[in-house]
Amino acid sequence: MKPENPILLTEKRALDRHFKIDLNVEKAFGSEPLWESLKAGETDSFEKIFKEFYRPLLNYGIRFNSDREEVKDCIQILFIKIWERKEYLGESDSIRNYLLASLRRLIIKRMNAAKNTFIGLDDNDIEFHADLSIEAQMIHDQTSLDSINVLQAAIDKLPNRQKEALFLRFYGDQSFADIAEVMNISTRAVYKLIYKALDSLNEDLAPYAKRIPLLLALFFSLPFEPVIDLLRES
Hints:
Oligomer: single chain
CATH topology of the largest domain: Arc Repressor Mutant, subunit A
Mean pLDDT: 75
Radius of gyration: 18 Å
CATH class of the largest domain: Mainly Alpha
Number of strands: 0
């Protein structure tokens, strides 16, 4: 397998610290025993999975559909279906990947149904919203706001699939194989999406080139204040 681009390893220690909660969740709840206990009808396992993954699912879902209530409905529907069909669920090495991929399919299916047309959306047509957090939109420091707008503008220029791949990589610290599973594409395709996206960002964000991985990790999650501090220091 082709080694990861060195830029993805930049400031790895800071990234690991940022993703501490998500990584702990994966260790605690991404194991087969919990999935097997859910399939066996253990309500405690079902509740743990729902509580721990609800926020990541919501944050991912609203990138496809900005209607939060619709996304919340999709998450509820997803978990209802999981519980109702628990005896028929297959094995899963990563609960997070299974949930993200399932929610992605459900949201797109409902978006297609809402269009009331025989022509459905394919992956290239799906808009992915990589927007600033609410906190960032409330900034009053003009210098910081200008810098953040440059970051937003650079991300906005990327194709939707590149945005989604970056989101999965830097919000949830997903491996390339994980991203491939969620997006239903090959690992090679994931490499290409992320490398092309980072190349484009390196050109548009030259002053922040060394900090792009950390900035992306913080950009896609809350709170947003650490990004402001980094931009001020650059």
